[in-house]
């Protein structure tokens, strides 16, 4: 069987990219990188602070640099930030440098998962649901256009999602082996 390529998780906040990414990396004995955590470690500041000081444009610039770095690695699992697909250069790099998995979740599920999270600058508005719906409308087509695989995460355990991803990626890499 061919070696599995880089596996890159995209999707909205609350889809489970970090949790599923860690489990997927452990399952495949790979290194795991979360682009948002890597940006924070490099800057020595959290994302809300970066948004406050540099604005969203400044953060997106840092994010593009981090995606360039992380996708240049081999045989890794990468979780991207929810807005990583907003830039065409990021979408192109993700598609060219790995198998992209869109972790799809509904806005209702996102609301449940991020209800108490105050570390999300784009949700610092009175109507979080409206913010999430606006982001979904803009980003869902971009996630779908970038992804090789779409996996629904609602009402599924992270382990079940990981098993689904592994099976589906193996079918992409070696379709004959998957049918055996």
From TrEMBL:
Keywords annotated in UniProt: Amino-acid biosynthesis, Aromatic amino acid biosynthesis, ATP-binding, Cytoplasm, Kinase, Magnesium, Metal-binding, Nucleotide-binding, Transferase
Gene3D superfamilies: P-loop containing nucleotide triphosphate hydrolases
GO biological process, one term: amino acid biosynthetic process
InterPro entries with a match to the protein in the record: P-loop_NTPase, Shikimate/glucono_kinase, Shikimate_kinase/TSH1, Shikimate_kinase_CS
Molecular function terms, GO-annotated: ATP binding; magnesium ion binding; shikimate kinase activity
Cofactor note: Binds 1 Mg(2+) ion per subunit.
UniProt subcellular location: Cytoplasm
Enzymatic reactions: shikimate + ATP = 3-phosphoshikimate + ADP + H(+)
Pfam family, one: SKI
Binding sites annotated in the UniProt record for Mg(2+): 18
CDD domains membership: SK
GO cellular component: cytosol
Superkingdom as given in the UniProt entry: Bacteria
Similarity section: Belongs to the shikimate kinase family.
UniProt-recorded name of the protein: Shikimate kinase
UniProt organism field: Billgrantia gudaonensis
Lineage: Bacteria, Pseudomonadati, Pseudomonadota, Gammaproteobacteria, Oceanospirillales
């Amino acid at each position: 069987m061919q070696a599995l390529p880089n596996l890159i998780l995209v999707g909205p906040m609350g889809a489970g990219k970090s949790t599923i990414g860690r489990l997927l990396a452990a399952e495949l004995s790979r290194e795991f990188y979360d682009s948002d955590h890597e940006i924070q470690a490099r800057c020595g500041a959290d994302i809300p602070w970066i948004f406050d000081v540099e604005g969203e444009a400044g953060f997106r610039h840092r994010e593009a640099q981090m995606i360039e770095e992380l996708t240049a690695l081999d045989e890794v699992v990468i979780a991207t930030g929810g807005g990583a697909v907003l830039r065409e250069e990021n979408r192109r790099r993700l598609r060219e440098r790995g198998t992209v998995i869109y972790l799809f979740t509904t806005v209702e599920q996102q609301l449940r998962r991020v209800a108490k999270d105050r570390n999300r600058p784009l949700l610092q508005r009175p109507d979080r649901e409206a913010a999430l719906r606006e982001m979904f409308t803009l980003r869902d087509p971009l996630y779908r256009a970038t992804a090789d695989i779409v996996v629904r995460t609602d009402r599924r355990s992270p382990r079940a999602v990981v098993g689904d991803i592994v099976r589906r990626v193996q079918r992409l890499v070696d379709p004959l082996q998957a049918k055996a």
